[in-house]
Every structure is written in C-alpha cells, then in structure tokens.
Amino acid sequence: MARRVVVTGLGILSPNGNTVKEAWENTKNGVNGIGPLTKAGAEGLPIHFAGELKNLDVLDYLDKKEARRLDEYSQYGVIAGNQAMEDAGFTPGGEMPYDRYRFGVLVGSGIGGLDTMETEVTKLNAKGFRRVNPLLVPMMISNMGSGYLAIKHDLRGYNTTVTTACASGTHSIGDAYHMIRDGYMDAMLAGGAESPIKMLAISGFLGLHAVTTTDRLDRASIPFDAERSGFVIAEGAGVIVLEEYEMAKKRGAHIYAEIAGYGATCDAYHMTAPQPEGAALAKAMEVAMEEAHVLPSEVSYINVHGTSTELNEKTETLAIKKAFGEEAYKIPLSSTKSMTGHSLGAAGGIEAVYSIMAMQDDFIPPTINYQVPDPECDLDCTPNIGKKADVDVVMSDNLGFGGHNAVLLFKKAE
C-alpha cells in the first residue's frame, strides 16, 4: 500500500535571500534578486546580469576546513540541507527518531563542481599536473553534495544524485518521494544545488544563444513576455526534508505540505530544444495529477519552469493546455525565475520551497517585469503583482536539456 509523504523542513539559498523567510518575503513582494554580474571575469563577457547570492559568507555556516574541501555547489547544498534539517527538528549529533539506514539523501546538480573544474584546469595548463589540488576528484564530482550531507548528519540510507540538467532538483524530490511512498525509506533529504556562474558555463550558454545579453535589468529575465531573449544564469540551492506521514505525526513534526504526485517523462526529441507541442510535458503533468488523485480543476497554482527563453514558455503554455483543457485559462501560474534567474539543477529545489510557501501563506507570487503580452502565451502568468488566493494544491514543473520533464504536485497539509 502506498504511504503518504509530507514535507517537514525547508532550506534555501537564493538570489532573493539566504533563509526561507527572507527569500519568500522578497518573492511575495516581487523583489528582483537579479543584479549586475560580478563573478566569472564579468568584464570580458557580453552578459550583464546574473542571479548571484548576496551577503553570503560560507564561514558563517561551515568551518574553514570543511569549506575548503567542498566545491561551491556542495557548500550551497550543505548549507541549505542543514537549514532544512534544523527546520525539521534534527541536529547533527542529536537524537534521531529514525533508523539511520532508513533516512536517505538525494540532492541533484546539473553540473556539479564546476568551480573546481575550471580552477584546476587553469592551474594544470599553467603549472602542470603536480600543482592540481589532490582533492580535485571529491570536490568536482556531482554526488558530493549528497555524500557530505550524509556525513554531516550521519544519514546511512539510500544516497544518490540525479543529474538531469535543469530538471535535477525536481527529479531528486520526486524520486525521494517515491522511495518513501513505496517503503524503501522512511525519510529523505532532497533537492538541488548549483554554482554555475563561471566563465566556462556562460561561454557555453552564449554559444547556444540561450542566455540574454540585454543591458536592461527590467528586460533581462522576463518569462512570457514577447520580448524575452534568453535566461539569466543564477546560483543557489533548495533542499527539503520528506517523511512518511504517520511517523512525522508521531514525532510531532511541523508539516508544511503533503507531496502527493510526481510525473517524469522524456521528449525523446532534441538535445536542447523542447518538443514543440509539449506532449511529453503534458503527460508528466497528467501522471502527477493522477497519482495525487487531483482533478485539473483542483489545482490552485502552477509554479512553471518559465526560463525567459523563446521556446520554453510556448512549450509550457501548450503543455498546460493539453493537460488541463479549458481549466488552463482559470489557473494562475507564475515564474519565480523572473526574480531569481535560472539556477539550473537547483531550480527545482528552490521552486519547491516557493511552491510550499505559496500554500502556507495562500499567496501566489508574481512574474515581474512583464510588459509585452505574447499571444502564444495567453495564460494567466500573474503579471508584476502577486495576489492572495486559496492555494490548496500546487504544481511545480521543470525541464532539462536532453528532453527531461519533471512535475511535482503538493497538497496543503490536512
């Protein structure tokens, strides 16, 4: 029999804030966390903006030795994971109401240790192999975020990493949910982390014409706007604690939401472009609703992928229409990437936190800087100003290069 799964802890590092409270309040109020690009040799690049973390000193969260041994993406994932564990009532070295072999970790990353890779390749080319950091491999590999969180909290259960580009965080939470639902684990720490604001990644995305080169901040990340011209690269992490419902209730945990549905499909179409009709994404949405026993008319809000690229919003609009029929025009949706930029593999984790907080506050965050309507994107994108509403069921979707589609469905906790 399928078990119920609930969310009991939240953690986030976002361009909009370094705590859940700060990030969510800024998101509710339409505060733009995107700003001038200062990292990655900014002076030599034709992009002007990025979603950089602000006022973050990792040594406020990690000791100097562990920070030095972790790539930036791992640092972000560990900090957000620590927040989530603390929020759920777990502390390192403290008592654990679970069998540690049944508490797992699944934190995804689209790229992994890019900062380490870029730094050490430069060092290799300039000074030879003997000068390469002996910790290159453990710092570089994309599973170290999950691995180190397990070490930090002595979590000995299922531990792995999903790498499905920009769908990584969403797949991680969905897969973790299934691990608990189907009885393999009792609790999981899950989400995504990324630190991609580096010369190499930006150069690659520029080659794909995927990132915007506008010099106007109010025209940079503009999902659903007819003048959108590419995404704004961002960094961060979003991690949540999932537990089996009865066990969470027994230990007196605060329950934020129930995760009730998960759909995952592949376009099987193109390496970087979404399937134009959105058929596979629509199917993932349908699967998530079927699994949650939710009708299209019961979905209160959709936190969309909304990258501010020409193809993405057209595809998502078509997919939503296929999955929801006439209900598509009645459901408010928004892209919080309008305020954070696109953090690639961390996006699904960050947006899961925002989706859950939307239910907590009965509030739909806006899509900011929306000015020019696109007739091909004619759904309600909650332009510019968020709004109070009864938010009982939230869908969150993310897409990744390779045709990956991942959809989560959250219900308000009963």
Automatic annotation (TrEMBL):
SMART domains on file: PKS_KS (SM00825)
GO cellular component assignments: cytosol
CDD domains found in the cross-reference section: KAS_I_II (cd00834)
Active site feature: 166
Pathway: Lipid metabolism; fatty acid biosynthesis
One Pfam match: ketoacyl-synt
Key word Zinc-finger present: no
Entry EC number(s): 2.3.1.179
GO molecular function annotations of the record: 3-oxoacyl-[acyl-carrier-protein] synthase activity
Top-level taxon: Bacteria
A single BP term in Gene Ontology: fatty acid elongation
Alphabetized PROSITE patterns for the sequence: KS3_1 (PS00606), KS3_2 (PS52004)
Domain Ketosynthase family 3 (KS3) per the UniProt entry, residue ranges: 2-412
Alphabetical keyword list: Acyltransferase, Fatty acid biosynthesis, Fatty acid metabolism, Lipid biosynthesis, Lipid metabolism, Transferase
Reaction catalysis annotation: a fatty acyl-[ACP] + malonyl-[ACP] + H(+) = a 3-oxoacyl-[ACP] + holo-[ACP] + CO2; (9Z)-hexadecenoyl-[ACP] + malonyl-[ACP] + H(+) = 3-oxo-(11Z)-octadecenoyl-[ACP] + holo-[ACP] + CO2
Function description: Involved in the type II fatty acid elongation cycle. Catalyzes the elongation of a wide range of acyl-ACP by the addition of two carbons from malonyl-ACP to an acyl acceptor. Can efficiently catalyze the conversion of palmitoleoyl-ACP (cis-hexadec-9-enoyl-ACP) to cis-vaccenoyl-ACP (cis-octadec-11-enoyl-ACP), an essential step in the thermal regulation of fatty acid composition.
Family named by the database record: Belongs to the thiolase-like superfamily. Beta-ketoacyl-ACP synthases family.
NCBIfam families: fabF (TIGR03150), PRK07314.1 (NF005589)
Protein name: 3-oxoacyl-[acyl-carrier-protein] synthase 2
Organism whose genome encodes this protein: Christensenella massiliensis
Gene that encodes the chain: fabF
